[in-house]
Design goal:
Structural Genomics Hypothetical 15.5 Kd Protein In mrcA-pckA Intergenic Region, Chain A; nine-stranded mixed sheet; alpha+beta; single chain; 3 domains; 6 helices; 17 strands; Alpha-Beta Plaits; four-stranded antiparallel sheet; binds uracil
């Protein structure tokens, strides 16, 4: 994981010069994760909590936008009390970024991470209407009536889901499994699994193939890439369009 020198981080936060930061460290005025550090050049990770005179510094951050192809067995959070691997552990950036929305521990695929609170808030807003395409491997044979029900919305947690786009990609009669593409615009908790459960099916595997125009088709599992300026501008464009309409 990328680490930076303590005095540099303090100076970059814009409160004091590098020299002053060094002086503060030597005088014992700086704490890292609750411990006084007097060593110059002490290396800190992006997650370290740094305090000067017991006041936490706000670390200056470049805005980052990451698309990760989340593997199975990784939690979508910034820290896990059970010490499981988190999506943030897979990303080597000096900035503190956090996931936009959530994929289950066993769900794979497209996950955005950023430190841009404005964009994250928009993307997570239920009314932002960002399409998310999932591929679900489901136990059993999905038929026309199930497709219609999923399209029109099913009741989960006492409330009907919004209309969605559904495509039956493949049915494997021999193994009694179906592969269904589901495009939803909401982001309710365990939504896809619950939608199938509402019809009596259980999801064996779930992958989010894309969020808006961002797909993980060319991104191997566990890898990530930074969004380019055009992609970020396109996401901001969606925010503008959407604010003219619904939000
Ligand atoms: N729906 C689910 O059920 N799980 C996910 O991880 C994402 C959507």
């Amino acid at each position: 994981m990328e680490q930076e020198r303590l005095q540099k981080v303090i100076a970059n936060a814009g409160i004091v010069s590098r020299r002053k930061a060094e002086e503060y460290i030597q005088k014992g005025r700086v704490k890292v994760d609750g411990k006084i550090i007097t060593e110059l050049g002490y290396k800190v990770s992006k997650h370290a909590i740094i305090m000067v005179d017991d006041i936490e510094i706000k670390r200056s951050q470049e805005l980052r936008y990451v698309l990760l192809n989340k593997p199975r067995g990784v939690v979508t959070t910034t820290s896990d009390d059970k010490h499981r691997k988190t999506v943030v552990d897979l990303i080597d950036l000096p900035e503190r970024i956090y996931p936009v929305g959530r994929l289950d521990y066993d769900t794979t695929g497209a996950l955005l991470l950023t430190n841009d609170g404005t964009l994250a808030e928009f993307l997570m807003h239920p009314r932002s209407g960002i399409p998310k395409v999932y591929l679900a491997k489901v136990e059993g044979i999905i038929k026309g009536e199930h497709i219609v029900a999923l399209k029109n919305g099913v009741v989960i947690d006492g409330r009907k889901t919004a209309k969605s786009r559904v495509k039956l990609r493949r049915v494997d009669i021999e193994n009694q499994v179906s592969f269904v593409e589901l495009t939803i615009h909401e982001g309710r908790n365990h939504q896809v699994k619950k939608m199938f459960e509402a019809l009596g099916f259980s999801v064996i595997k779930l992958k989010r193939e894309s969020i808006a125009f961002l797909s993980v088709k060319d991104l191997p599992s566990g890898e990530y890439r930074l969004l380019n300026k055009k992609e970020v501008a396109r996401l901001y464009g969606l925010m503008k369009t959407s604010s003219n309409e619904t939000i």
